[in-house]
Design a protein that fits this description.
single chain, 2 strands, two-stranded antiparallel ribbon, mainly alpha
């Protein structure tokens, strides 16, 4: 069970970041309410900002990517169950699926600690991202 503080009781560092729940804009809203003492009108403005800036979309995209990764893994298992190495189609499909699965696995298991520079242009900002692994 997650605490009332949602991970904040451990502080924020590259090691403790994994104790924070994620995947919902409402977690951001809850933190902003508690830490910044925002009222309901201000929270609604923050919700609109998250929506307008694509945060909600990317939370959903992340969930969809994880689901896709599981679907690909299931398909690989099904193919392996009836795999015949002399069938070129199976071999080609397995190679392709394994390639996609491995790439999705890398995306899904990236470190959470990503410091986005205070630069509005995303292309310039991406060049200066700071990613810290455990």
């Amino acid at each position: 069970m997650h605490s009332e503080l949602g991970g904040w009781e451990h502080g924020l560092s590259p090691d403790t970041i994994y104790s924070f729940r994620q995947n919902s804009p409402e977690l951001i809203i809850r933190d902003a309410k508690r830490m910044l003492h925002l009222d309901d009108d201000q929270l609604e403005i923050l919700r609109r900002i998250l929506l307008a800036r694509g945060v909600n979309k990317w939370f959903k995209a992340r969930r969809d990517i994880i689901k896709l990764k599981h679907e690909i893994k299931k398909r690989i298992s099904e193919l392996l169950g009836r795999y015949k190495k002399w069938e070129r189609v199976h071999k080609t499909e397995l190679k392709l699926l394994n390639s996609f699965y491995e790439r999705l696995e890398v995306i899904c298991h990236q470190p959470r600690w990503v410091e986005w520079p205070r630069i509005a242009d995303p292309r310039e900002a991406e060049k200066k991202l700071v990613v810290k692994a455990r």
